[in-house]
From TrEMBL, chain A:
Keywords from the named record: Cell membrane, Membrane, Transmembrane, Transmembrane helix
Membrane topology classification: Multi-pass membrane protein
Membrane among keywords: yes
Domain of life where this protein originates: Bacteria
Organism: Roseibium sediminicola
Subcellular localization(s) per the UniProt record: Cell membrane
Listed name of the protein: ABC transporter permease
UniProtKB/TrEMBL annotation, chain B:
Secretion signal span: none
Organism lineage string: Bacteria, Pseudomonadati, Pseudomonadota, Alphaproteobacteria, Hyphomicrobiales
Superkingdom of this protein's organism: Bacteria
Main location: membrane
InterPro entries assigned: ABC_transp_permease
Name this protein carries in UniProt: ABC transporter permease
Localization terms from the record: Cell membrane
UniProtKB/TrEMBL annotation, chain C:
All copies of domain ABC transporter, residue ranges: 12-252, 267-510
Biological source species: Roseibium sediminicola
Parts forming coiled coils: none
Single Gene Ontology MF annotation: ATP binding
Matching PANTHER family: CARBOHYDRATE TRANSPORT ATP-BINDING PROTEIN MG119-RELATED, GALACTOFURANOSE TRANSPORTER ATP-BINDING PROTEIN YTFR
Protein name, UniProt field: ABC transporter ATP-binding protein
Keywords: ATP-binding, Nucleotide-binding, Repeat, Sugar transport, Transport
UniProt cross-references to Pfam families, sorted A to Z: ABC_tran (PF00005)
CDD domains referenced in this protein's UniProt entry, alphabetically: ABC_Carb_Monos_I, ABC_Carb_Monos_II
SUPFAM superfamilies on file: P-loop containing nucleoside triphosphate hydrolases
Similarity field: Belongs to the ABC transporter superfamily.
Length: 360, 314, 515
C-alpha cells in the first residue's frame, strides 16, 4: 500500500531534481520504441545530441526551435498558475501570426522601429483577444475553458486557411495557400549572419523575465497565485477573481500570439497553414516540465527543442520516423506528472518490511 | 427553401447523419461513463487515434474485422488504464493527465504507423465493414435505406447506448459508478473500493471511446490517415455536457450533431460557390461550443468530477 | 450496566492501538472493550484522537501497532483484517461519520443498498430490500422516505439514513462520530432514545462526543481520550461533569465568561433581505446589530446560515432587501467593499475559504489588504513590510508556525483560525461576522477565539455569531435569533431563553418568525 504524506515547503533544488528526473525518465522510456524501430539506443541519442549541439548551426537551430516553445510554455505556465486551463495556445499562435502578417505585409509602412513594434503588438493583441472569449465564457457563464480553447484551435486554423486561400493569399504565390511575405522593415532581425536564429529569442527571454517578475513581485502576480491555489479563499479575501482570470487570459493568449509573430516575422517570412508543428501543445509539456516556473520554462523549452531538432537530424540519418520526438515529449509530460508527486508528498510504502521513507 | 426540404426528406441524408453520428456515439458514451465515475478523460482525442490505428493495423496484419475491433478496444483500455492510474490512486490533475494521454496515444500511434510503413505514399487499404443487408427491414421504403443500411459497428453503437443505460440505472454496478462520481466517501463507507470502481470504469469507458476511432478506419474509411480524428474527441467531451451525462440524451445529441453535419455538407454543394468551404468545416466546432454555452448554466456536473479521492481524507 | 462485562458478551475489543502521523502520535496504546447491548461514550476534545481511533476500527486507517478483535458471531473474538472497510462491514461494524458519507444525488434507498449486492449481478432486487427496510424502520422508529434524493433531506433525516445503512447490514456494533453536533436538543434526545432501544435489542454502540451532558445522560460507560491516550474508562454512574471535564482536558477548564455589556446604537442592519435559492435560501430576513454586542444566530445547519454569511461577507448579492452600515445603505457589495467598510468576516469553512494553503503565513496574513499602501507601492509588493507585519501578528495572536514563510496548509486548525482572526481583527473592524468560529477546535483554541470576539465587543464592535453549538451561543451572545428554513426570528436577550425553547425554534416550532 502506498501512502502520501504532505511535505513542507519545496526547495528549488528539489523542483529542479524532479524535472531533470522526469526528463531522464522520458529518455529512458523512449528506448522501448527505439528498440522497436530497430535503433541502437546509444547511437540514436548520439545522433540526436549531435543534431542539437554538434555544431554552431545545430545549436542555433535548436535555439530557434526553442523560441516559440518558450513563449507557448509561458502562455501555459501563467494560465495554469491561475488554474485557467488554456489549451488553446496553438490557435492563439496562429491568430498572432495572422495579425502579424496582416499588419506587416503592407497595411502600414514605415521604418523598422515603427513597424516591428506594431507587428509584435498586433500579434500579442490578436492572441490575447482569442483567449478573451473562452475566459469570458468561463467567468460569465461557467463554460469549461478546456473544451472551448481546444475547439477554437480547429476553428482558427480553418480561419487561417480560409484567409490564405482568400483575401490574404499571395498573388505572386502561384496559387499556393500562403500569405504575402512580410516587409523587410517589419521582420524581426536575425541575431547571427547566415543562421536562422532571430530576435524572437530575445523577445521570449525578456517575456520569461517579465512573467517571473510579474508573478513574484507584483500585486497582480500575488492575486494570480492566490486565485490559482484557492479561488474560493481569494474571493472571500476580496481579491477580484474575475478580473484576475481576464488578465491572465489576455496575457496567456498574448504570449502564445507572440510565438506566432516570431515564427512568421522572424523565421518564415510569410504565413502558411503548417506554420506550427504543435508548438501550442508542446508548450503545455514545457510548462509542466518547468513546474510552471517562468525561468524553468526557458530550460524546459531548450530541452524539448533539442529533442525535436535532434530527432529530426537522427531521423534523416537513420530513416526512423521523427514522430519519435513527439513520443518522447509526451512521455516527458507523463513522467513529470508522476514525479511531481514526490514534490508535494512524501511517498511511503506501508506494510512491507521496507516501510521506510522511500522518497527521501 | 425547397432545396433544404429536399435534403431533409432524402433517405440518403438520414443515413449519412447516422453514419456521422456513430463515432460520436461511441465517444460520448465512453466519456460519459468515465465522467459518471468522476473522471474527466481528455485522453479521448488520442484514444480515438489509437483505436483507429490499432484496429486498422490489426486487420491489415491479417486479423478479422471483429479481431480489429477487439484490438482497438484493448488499445483504448491500455491508454485508459494509464489515465486511470495517474488520476485515481495518484490523484493528479485530470486535465493535464488527459492532455498527456492524448499526446502520448497520438504520437505512439503515428510512430508505430510510420515505423511499420516507412515509405508508402498512399495509405494502404483494408476490406472494411460493409453495410448490413437485413432482410425485410432494409427494404422498407425510406426507413430501410436511412436506418438499416448501416455497418455492424453502427448497430453496436446503438446497442451500447441501451446497454450503458441499463447498467447505469438498473444494476448494482451502475449504482456504484453513479455513487462514486457523486461522493466517493459514500462508496467507501459501504465497503466498496473507490479506486477499483473508478479505474475499472475509466478503462471500460476508454475502450468504448476507442471503438469510435475504429469506426473511422474500419467503416467510414478503409485506411488510416494522420490527423483523421480531427477534434472529434473534443466534440464528444462537449456533447457529454450537452447530454447531461445521460445515455439517451447522448444518443440524441450525437444524432442531432450528425444530422447538422450531414446537412451542412449537402448545403455546401448548394451554396458552396459563394461561401468558402472552411466556414462549413468550422461548423462542428462552433456548434459544439454553442452547445456548451446553451447548457452551461444548468449543467448538473457529477459532484465528484475532477476531485481526486484519498482514503481517510474527507 | 451492572458490574464488569462478561467475556462472552464482548462484541468488540481494541487491543493496544497505536497510530502515528509523522511526529504526532494520534493514538497511543489504546485498549477498549465493548459489550453487547452497551452504550459506550468515547469522550475527548477535538484533536484527542477519537476520530482516528474509529477510523482505524472501520479500516480507513491502518494502525501502526495493535489489533481490532470482533465477535464473529460465535463465542470467540477474531482479529479484524486491518485497513479494509469491507471487512469491518462484514464483521458487523457500522459507522456513522460526522460528515455524512451519502451520495447526495441518489435516493435514500440507493445509498442504503449501495455495496450490499454483488457488483456483477445483472439486476438489482429492490422489493425484498424495501420490505426489510420498512420493517426495520417500524421497529426502530427511524423513518425516512426511501425514494427521496438525499439532497432533499434534512440533516436529521440524513443521519437516520446513515444509521439505517448499518442496521440494514445487521450491524452488531454501531459507531457514531459526534452524532449530535448537527441536531437540535430535541432531535438529540430522540436520537439517544432510539440508541437506547437499539442497545436494548443487543446492539453495541459507541458514540464519540465532547459534550459532557449527553455523555452523562445517555451512556453506560465512558472512556476518556486525551492526547491520543486513554486516561479513564469508568462506569458513567460513577462520574459527574466536573470530573469528566478535568479528565478530558487534563486541568480545570477555564470557561469563557461574558460580563454584561452595554449595547450602543444600531450598527449593521439587514432589512427584508432575501437571497439564494433551494434549501439554503433566505426569506425576508431582518437583523439589527448594535455596537458593543454579540448577536447569536442559532439554527440547524442547512437552514440558510451559509447564505446569510455569504450576503454579509459580500459574496452573494441579495435578490431583494437592503443592508445598512451605520445608517448608510451598502450597494453593489463585494468582499472588497465589505472589508473596506470595516466588516471582518470569519468564514465557516476556514480551510476552504479562509486560507490559501499553498501560500505562506505572511501572504495569508496580508491577503485582505494586499492592495493597501502598506503592502504595495506602484503595484509592486513590499515584502519587507509584509514580513515585519506578519512577525508582529504571529506574536500578538500566538500563531504557532515554524516561520512566517511556512505554507499555511501545514498549520493546525486552531492556528489557521488564528491567521484568519489576526488579519481580520487587527484592523479593529466595526462589525465582525463569525461563522462557526470554534468548529473543530480544541478547548484552548476555542477559548482564544471566544476571548477575541469578546475583546472586539468590549471595544464597541458588533459581532454576529453564527453557530450550531448552543452552549457557545448562550455563553457568548447578548441576544440570540433563530434561523429556520431561511426565516430569522427576532433576536431576544439570552437571559430570557433556554436550550429547550431554542431547540424547538430551531426545529421550526414556536417563537415568532420575523415578518
Amino acid at each position: 500500500m502506498i501512502r502520501f504524506e504532505p511535505r513542507g515547503p519545496v526547495p528549488v533544488s528539489r523542483m529542479l531534481a524532479v524535472s531533470v528526473a522526469a526528463a531522464l525518465a522520458a529518455l529512458m522510456l523512449a528506448a522501448i520504441p527505439m528498440a522497436f524501430a530497430g535503433l541502437s539506443v546509444f547511437e540514436a541519442y548520439g545522433l540526436m545530441a549531435k543534431g542539437a549541439f554538434g555544431s554552431l548551426f545545430a545549436f542555433t537551430e535548436m535555439l530557434t526551435r526553442a523560441t516559440p516553445l518558450i513563449l507557448t510554455g509561458l502562455a501555459a505556465a501563467v494560465a495554469f498558475k491561475a488554474k485557467l486551463w488554456n489549451i488553446g495556445a496553438e490557435g492563439q499562435l496562429y491568430a498572432g501570426a495572422l495579425a502579424a502578417v496582416a499588419v506587416g505585409t503592407g497595411l502600414v509602412s514605415g521604418p523598422a522601429y515603427v513597424l516591428i513594434p506594431l507587428v509584435v503588438l498586433a500579434g500579442a493583441l490578436a492572441g490575447g483577444l482569442v483567449m478573451l472569449g473562452p475566459t469570458l465564457l468561463k467567468t460569465r457563464l461557467g463554460v469549461d475553458e478546456v473544451v472551448t480553447t481546444l475547439l477554437l484551435n480547429f476553428v482558427i486554423l480553418l480561419f487561417v486557411q480560409m484567409m490564405l486561400e482568400g483575401p490574404m493569399q499571395d498573388p505572386m504565390g502561384m496559387g499556393w495557400p500562403q500569405s504575402e511575405p512580410i516587409l523587410d522593415e517589419a521582420a524581426l532581425p536575425k541575431l547571427m549572419a547566415r543562421m536562422r536564429i532571430h530576435w524572437g529569442l530575445i523577445v521570449a527571454l525578456v517575456a520569461a523575465l517579465g512573467v517571473w517578475f510579474l508573478l513574484k513581485r507584483t500585486v497582480w502576480g500575488f492575486e494570480i497565485r492566490a486565485v490559482g491555489e484557492n479561488a474560493a479563499a481569494a474571493r472571500h479575501a476580496g481579491i477580484p477573481v474575475t478580473a484576475t482570470f481576464i488578465r491572465v487570459g489576455l496575457l496567456s493568449g498574448a504570449l502564445a500570439g507572440l510565438a506566432g509573430v516570431g515564427e512568421v516575422a522572424g523565421l518564415k517570412g510569410y504565413l502558411t497553414a503548417d506554420l506550427s508543428p504543435g508548438f501550442g501543445y508542446s508548450g503545455i509539456v514545457v510548462a509542466m516540465l518547468a513546474g510552471l516556473s517562468p525561468v524553468g520554462v526557458v530550460l524546459a523549452a531548450l530541452f524539448i527543442a533539442s529533442i525535436f531538432v535532434g530527432a529530426d537530424s537522427m531521423s534523416r540519418a537513420t530513416g526512423v520516423s521523427n514522430y519519435l520526438a513527439d513520443l518522447i515529449v509526451a512521455m516527458a509530460l507523463i513522467s513529470v506528472l508522476v514525479s511531481g508527486l514526490f514534490l508535494r508528498f512524501k511517498v511511503r510504502f506501508v506494510g512491507g518490511p521496507a516501510a521506510k521513507e522511500a522518497a527521501e | 427553401m425547397t432545396e433544404i426540404l429536399d435534403i431533409l426528406i432524402s433517405a440518403n441524408f438520414w443515413a449519412a447523419a447516422l453514419r456521422i453520428a456513430t463515432p460520436l456515439i461511441f465517444g460520448v458514451i465512453g466519456a460519459l461513463v468515465c465522467e459518471r465515475a468522476g473522471v474527466l478523460n481528455l485522453g479521448i482525442e488520442g484514444i480515438f487515434t489509437a483505436g483507429a490505428m490499432a484496429g486498422w493495423m490489426a486487420v491489415w496484419l491479417g486479423a478479422g474485422l471483429w479481431g480489429g475491433v477487439l484490438v482497438a478496444a484493448m488499445a483504448g483500455a491500455f491508454f485508459g488504464l494509464i489515465h486511470a492510474i495517474l488520476t485515481v490512486p495518484l490523484g493528479l490533475s485530470q486535465h493535464v493527465s488527459g492532455i498527456g494521454v492524448t499526446l502520448f496515444a497520438t504520437s505512439l500511434s503515428y510512430f508505430i504507423y510510420r515505423t511499420a510503413l516507412p515509405d508508402v505514399s498512399s495509405p494502404p487499404r483494408i476490406e472494411a465493414f460493409k453495410p448490413l443487408d437485413i432482410p425485410l427491414l432494409s427494404d422498407l421504403p425510406f426507413i430501410g435505406p436511412a436506418l438499416f443500411q448501416q455497418t455492424a459497428l453502427t448497430f453496436l453503437a446503438l446497442a451500447l447506448v441501451l446497454a450503458t443505460a441499463y447498467v447505469l440505472y438498473r444494476t448494482p454496478l451502475g449504482l456504484a459508478i453513479r455513487a462514486v462520481g457523486d461522493n466517493p466517501a459514500a462508496v467507501e463507507s459501504q465497503g466498496l473500493s473507490v479506486y477499483a470502481i473508478r479505474i475499472g470504469t475509466v478503462v471500460a469507458g476508454s475502450a468504448i471511446m476507442a471503438l469510435g476511432g475504429a469506426f473511422l478506419t474500419m467503416s467510414a474509411f478503409d485506411a488510416f490517415f494522420f490527423g483523421m480524428v480531427n477534434g472529434r474527441g473534443w466534440i464528444c467531451i462537449a456533447l457529454t455536457v450537452f447530454a447531461s451525462w445521460r445515455p439517451g440524451k447522448a444518443l440524441i445529441g450525437a444524432l442531432l450533431f450528425g444530422a447538422f453535419d450531414a446537412f451542412q455538407v449537402r448545403l455546401q454543394t448548394e451554396v458552396g460557390s459563394f461561401i468558402p468551404g472552411q466556414v462549413f468545416l468550422m461548423m462542428p466546432y462552433l456548434l459544439s461550443i454553442a452547445a456548451l454555452i446553451v447548457v452551461a448554466r444548468k449543467a448538473d456536473y457529477p459532484r465528484a468530477l475532477l476531485v481526486p479521492y484519498f482514503r481517510g481524507q474527507r | 450496566m451492572t458490574g464488569p462485562a462478561e467475556e462472552a458478551d464482548i462484541v468488540l475489543r481494541l487491543d493496544g492501538i497505536t497510530k502515528r502521523f509523522g511526529a504526532l502520535t494520534a493514538n497511543g496504546d489504546v485498549s477498549l472493550d465493548l459489550s453487547r447491548g452497551e452504550i459506550l461514550a468515547l469522550l475527548g476534545e477535538n484533536g484527542a484522537g477519537k476520530t482516528t481511533l474509529m477510523n482505524i476500527l472501520f479500516g480507513h486507517y491502518v494502525a501502526d501497532e495493535g489489533r481490532v478483535l470482533v465477535n464473529g458471531g460465535g463465542d470467540a473474538l477474531v482479529e479484524l483484517e486491518p485497513g479494509s472497510p469491507h471487512a469491518a462491514l462484514e464483521a458487523g461494524i457500522g459507522m456513522v461519520h460526522q460528515h455524512f458519507t451519502l451520495a447526495e444525488n441518489l435516493s435514500a434507498l440507493d445509498n442504503i443498498l449501495l455495496g450490499t449486492e454483488r457488483l456483477a449481478a445483472l439486476a438489482s432486487s429492490r422489493a425484498p430490500a424495501r420490505r426489510k427496510l420498512e420493517e426495520l424502520m417500524a421497529r426502530s422508529g427511524l423513518t425516512v422516505s426511501l425514494d427521496t434524493r438525499i439532497s432533499q433531506l434534512s440533516v436529521g433525516e440524513k443521519q437516520r439514513v446513515e444509521i439505517l445503512k448499518a442496521l440494514y447490514r445487521d450491524a452488531r456494533v454501531l459507531v457514531l462520530d459526534e452524532p449530535t453536533a448537527v441536531l437540535t436538543p430535541q432531535e438529540s434526545e430522540t436520537l439517544f432514545e432510539t440508541l437506547k432501544k437499539l442497545a436494548g435489542d443487543g446492539l453495541g454502540i459507541i458514540f464519540i462526543s465532547h459534550k459532557l451532558a449527553e455523555v452523562i445522560a445517555s451512556s453506560h460507560r465512558v472512556a476518556v481520550l486525551r492526547g491520543g491516550r486513554k486516561v479513564a474508562d469508568l462506569a458513567t454512574a460513577e462520574c459527574d461533569q466536573r470530573k469528566l471535564a478535568e479528565l478530558m482536558v487534563g486541568h480545570e477548564i477555564v470557561e469563557t465568561v461574558r460580563t454584561p455589556g452595554s449595547p450602543g446604537a444600531s450598527l449593521f442592519v439587514l432589512k427584508n433581505v432575501s437571497a439564494g435559492d433551494g434549501r439554503d435560501a433566505l426569506h425576508s430576513v431582518d437583523l439589527d446589530l448594535k455596537s458593543g454586542e454579540i448577536l447569536g444566530i442559532a439554527g440547524v445547519s442547512g437552514n440558510g446560515q451559509t447564505t446569510l454569511a455569504r450576503v454579509i461577507s459580500g459574496l452573494g448579492a441579495p435578490t431583494s432587501g437592503t443592508a445598512e452600515l451605520e445608517g448608510t445603505a451598502l450597494r453593489h457589495t463585494s468582499a472588497r467593499t465589505m472589508i473596506d467598510n470595516g466588516l471582518a468576516r470569519i468564514p465557516e469553512d476556514r480551510h476552504h475559504d479562509g486560507i490559501v494553503g499553498a501560500m505562506n503565513v505572511t501572504e495569508n496574513l496580508a491577503i485582505e489588504t494586499i492592495r493597501k499602501p502598506e503592502n504595495q507601492r506602484f503595484g509592486l509588493l513590499r515584502f519587507a513590510a509584509m514580513r515585519e507585519k506578519a512577525r508582529q501578528l504571529i506574536k500578538a495572536y500566538d500563531i504557532r508556525c515554524q516561520s512566517e514563510d511556512s505554507p499555511a496548509r501545514l498549520l493546525s486548525g486552531g492556528n489557521i483560525q488564528k491567521i484568519v482572526l489576526a488579519r481580520t481583527l487587527e484592523a479593529e473592524p466595526k462589525v465582525v461576522l463569525a461563522a462557526q468560529p470554534s468548529r473543530g477546535l480544541d478547548v484552548g483554541a476555542t477559548y482564544d477565539v471566544h476571548q477575541r470576539l469578546l475583546a472586539a465587543r468590549a471595544r464597541g464592535a458588533g459581532v454576529i455569531l453564527i453557530s450550531e453549538d448552543l452552549d457557545e451561543l448562550m455563553r457568548l451572545s447578548d441576544r440570540i435569533a433563530v434561523i429556520h428554513r431561511g426565516h430569522l426570528s427576532a433576536a431576544e436577550p439570552t437571559e430570557s431563553l433556554d436550550r429547550g425553547t431554542l431547540g424547538l425554534r430551531m426545529a421550526g416550532h414556536g417563537g415568532e418568525e420575523a415578518a
